[in-house]
Amino acid sequence: MKRLYALYATFVALSGCMLFLYRWPFGHIEQQWSMLVLLCISVILLSVYMIHLPPKGNGFSLDSAVYLATVFVYGLEMALMVLFLSMLPTYLFHEKSMKWWKHVCNFAMYTWMIVGAYYSFIMFGGESGAFSIYFLGAYLGSLIVYSMINILLMAGFFSLSSSYRVSHILISMLSEWLSSYGVTLLASLVLVSLLTLHAQFGIILFTSVILLLSFTLRKYGTLYEKVAHDKAYIEQLLNTLPIGIITMHHSSSQHFINHSAVTLLGLDKKEIKQMIEQK
User: Fold this and answer.
1) How far from chain centre, in Å, is Cα 161?
2) What pTM does this model have?
């Protein structure tokens, strides 16, 4: 299994890098270096300051929204340049603990996703440039292809590194598709509109809003973790008491039953909850 995983990672890395070299975006950037730098800074900041959601460990990044918006407004070569230039600082300064080959695989996967998104956008009738309501189908189709490439490639890695079946992994990832990639699509369209109105100010405004949202949610996440820790500590103390204690929250129908209550009543917690709900 480890050998298959290594072969799969090698295939993904080599194919993605070869695709990037085949497109060779370096010669297509003309008089857009200032915008390229701003887009790269935005991707780096959004990758570092992810939007964290409670409980701890949940979160997502909106760097994909920048890649998609760049494809919609500036085209494929600009998006690949943003990917290439933003990956280097991330590798050198932010994620030093990650092995180098994982960075290469990550770069290759994003290359496949961006290229797939661009050609699907063109195939569905879209044109790079200003936002148009007539391209909504192309925007949606591009996002679906972008996300499906990501899901399929990641499913391959997870299936080869764990005992779970590919079907179970795909179902789990697809169940979260609407919430995560729905936000990505809406954010990318917002950024497209901002870039159309004023490119430099638009990307600065978009990045600033997302960063503020990230910082705010981090504070709420810290507060949530503190409350959850205090709740667990109080329940631990109540479970040590020799007195039976049962509490009920009327609005949320949540119950707490300590160990002594279970012992004194001779019922399990499920039976006690059913008796409380009946009354």
Assistant:
1) 20
2) 0.79
φ, ψ (nearest 5 deg) of residue 97: -70, -20
- As a three-state string, the secondary structure of the chain is CHHHHHHHHHHHHHHHHHHHHHHCHHHHCCCCHHHHHHHHHHHHHHHHCCEEECCCCEEECCHHHHHHHHHHHHCHHHHHHHHHHHHHHHHHHHCCCCCHHHHHHHHHHHHHHHHHHHHHHHHCCCCCCCCCHHHHHHHHHHHHHHHHHHHHHHHHHHHHHCCCCHHHHHHHHHHCHHHHHHHHHHHHHHHHHHHHHCHHHHHHHHHHHHHHHHHHHHHHHHHHHHHHHHHHHHHHHHHHCCCCCEEEECCCCEEEECHHHHHHHCCCHHHHHHHHHHC
How many Å is the Cα radius of gyration of the chain? 24
pLDDT in tens, 132-176: 888 989 999 999 899 889 888 887 777 777 666 666 656 666 666
Q: How many CB atoms lie within 10 A of CB 108?
A: 22
**Cβ neighbours of residue 243 closer than 8 Å, sequence gap 6 or more:** 260
Q: How far is CA 112 from CA 14, 105, 162, 251, in A?
A: 11, 11, 24, 49
Tokens of 49: 């300051």
Task: Report the DSSP pairing between strands 51-53 and 58-60.
Answer: antiparallel
CB 125 within 8 A of CB 111: no
CB 215 within 8 A of CB 49: yes
Q: Residue 61 phi/psi, 5° resolution? A: -115, 145
d(CA 28, CA 25): 6
- Taking only the tens place, the pLDDT of each residue in 69-90 is 999 999 999 999 999 999 877 7
